[in-house]
Design a protein that fits this description.
Layout (H helix, E strand, L loop, with lengths): L11 E4 L2 E4 L2 E2 H8 L3 E5 H18 L3 E6 L6 H9 L3 E4 L2 H9 L7 E3 L6 H10 L3 E4 L2 H14 L3 E6 L28 H10 L4 E7 L9 H22 L5 E3 L27 H13 L7 E4 L3 H4 L3 E13 L2 E6 L8 H4 L6 E3 L7 E8 L12 H14 L5 H7 L6 E4 L7 E5 L19 E5 L5 E5 L19
Parallel strand pairs: 4-19, 5-6, 5-12, 6-7, 7-8, 8-9, 9-10, 10-11, 11-12, 14-16
Antiparallel strand pairs: 1-2, 2-3, 4-13, 13-14, 13-18, 15-18, 16-17, 19-20
Length: about 475
């Protein structure tokens, strides 16, 4: 296995053998707030937001960055991103509520999603939000009916399928007709008929598309530019006026690997270029195809928050299977749902032994009563030898990497043992909102290292009483 490239993880350092984030001792924070514990960096969050917005506007001056709040909808995070000049994309009535609570104006909100309820759509029309990203012909009919009832004109953006492949895995690709997202070429005649028939209720302000998540190649986004430019011109001609905006979605990556060398399994988690570099090139390419007053929208989520947080987890147990050492953490996929859903990779290190070289390969697992609760690919490791036996040969590296999503072990400080603290990096995206209480394990606390070095609490740790908060006991019968 290759060695850790600690220098590549911005904001982290080592003091007295302990890992630090923005100068704060992470081991001490876990001692104060308990574990598991999420620690966010305000400095990193603001830097990511500012860099993405500046890059988009360098490429196209009339650019708006609508943060994809599903990535992390913590109120404190939302307020910081709003103060950095970002707008917001929401995916439910709950996220819309939180966006308004955080101070976003309706004109700064776009509503995305494949299954919006009549209540959510009606509220969006009442508020007069920037755009409802329409996902189907049925939904456009529903919006028209609701808008007519209010004597209102709903601002809609048409989400089309560009038939492009992007994203680390099939499960996070969104740009082709095999996925559940958007409308195809076959839907266009009916879309245009509805827009014409309900012109008093529907205001087609935009075109929207999204190709996937953790898209590592700028070329994929440039393909989306070509599609969007052609579709916008065709539809604008049919509608009789240009769109006010074109929304190219998100999917911009962060660097999850933090390893030197070439590892085909981890290659999919790489990001050859920073998100800001990629979005500037994409915005510039789109700018050459748009009129100067057409607004360009982006919906980044992971690229804004992904590398802003670390999860601190205590080693609670150890075993040996033959010569192989195993470590048992107090955090598993109850804190990192993508660990189970897509076998997502998160780099790790021993936080209280940060000055020791990572030289021993450990199998790492979580605390849940579930064999899938582990930091390696259980299903892939089961499937690979069966395929090799079936075909009577070893599979090549590319096919092996498609089957195995995670490395079998993690290189940790050789002396790592129960009581030590493991840092799990790049956990800012799709974690706080996805935590759950399986096996009666309370959801973790989260704190943030502020710009001045002080600590702000983002959420308290669940208590055992919280596990009962939504439950109702049957009334006694008389």
């Amino acid at each position: 296995m290759t060695t850790t490239n600690r220098d590549a993880i911005a904001g982290y350092g080592v003091q007295g053998g302990h890992l630090t984030l923005d100068g704060r001792d992470l081991v001490a924070l876990a001692g104060e707030y308990g574990s598991p514990l999420f620690v966010f960096s305000e400095r990193r969050l603001r830097a990511n937001a500012a860099a993405f917005l500046a890059a988009a506007r360098n490429g196209h001056p009339s650019s708006t960055v609508c943060y994809a709040s599903k990535a992390c909808s913590n109120i404190h995070v939302l307020k910081i991103l709003r103060s950095e000049g970002l707008a917001i994309e929401v995916n439910s009535g709950g996220e819309l509520h939180k966006a308004l609570y955080a101070g976003f104006a309706p004109s700064e909100i776009v509503f995305n999603g494949v299954s919006k309820s009549t209540t959510e759509l009606d509220w969006s029309i009442e508020l007069g939000i920037k755009a409802i990203n329409v996902d189907s012909v049925f939904e456009l009919e529903r919006i028209a009916r609701l808008a007519h009832a209010r004597s209102a004109r709903a601002k809609v953006s048409l989400r089309l399928v560009p038939s492009l492949t992007g994203g680390a895995f099939a499960s996070i690709q969104t740009g082709n007709a095999k996925t559940k997202f958007g409308m195809t070429q076959a839907d266009l005649p009916e879309l245009l008929r509805l827009l014409a028939a309900h012109s008093q209720a529907l205001d087609p302000v935009g075109l929207h598309l999204h190709i996937g998540s953790q898209v590592a190649e700028t070329a994929s986004f440039l393909g989306a530019v070509e599609f969007a430019a052609g579709a916008a011109a065709t539809l604008a001609a049919a509608i009789g006026r240009p769109f006010a905006h074109v929304n190219l979605g998100g999917g911009y990556p962060i660097e999850y690997r933090h390893r030197r060398g070439n590892d085909p399994v981890l290659e999919r988690y790489g990001a050859p270029e920073r998100a800001a570099t990629m979005v500037e090139a994409v915005a510039a390419a789109m700018s050459r195809k748009l009129s100067g007053d057409t607004e360009l929208l982006f919906e980044p989520g992971r690229a804004i928050v992904g590398d802003t947080a670390v999860l601190l987890s205590r080693v609670e147990n150890q075993k040996h299977r033959g010569e192989q050492p195993w470590l048992y953490l107090d955090a598993g996929y109850n804190m990192l749902l993508d660990l189970a859903v897509t076998r997502w990779y998160y780099h790790m290190a021993t936080a209280n032994r940060a000055d020791e070289a990572a030289r021993t390969e450990f199998r790492l697992v979580g605390p849940l009563c579930d064999s899938a609760d582990c930091f390696y690919d259980t299903e892939g490791e089961y499937l690979l030898p069966k395929l090799q036996q079936r075909f009577g040969m070893d599979l090549d590296e590319a096919l092996t990497a498609d089957i195995l999503h995670l490395p079998p072990t993690r290189a940790m400080a050789a002396s790592t043992a129960p009581g030590d603290l493991v840092a799990i990096f790049d956990v800012g995206a799709y974690t706080l909102s996805e935590m759950f209480t399986y096996c009666g394990r309370p959801r973790a606390a989260a704190v943030m290292v502020k710009l001045d070095g002080s600590i702000a609490s983002l959420r308290r740790r669940d208590s055992y009483q919280d596990l009962l908060a939504q439950e109702m006991e049957p009334a006694d019968r008389t």
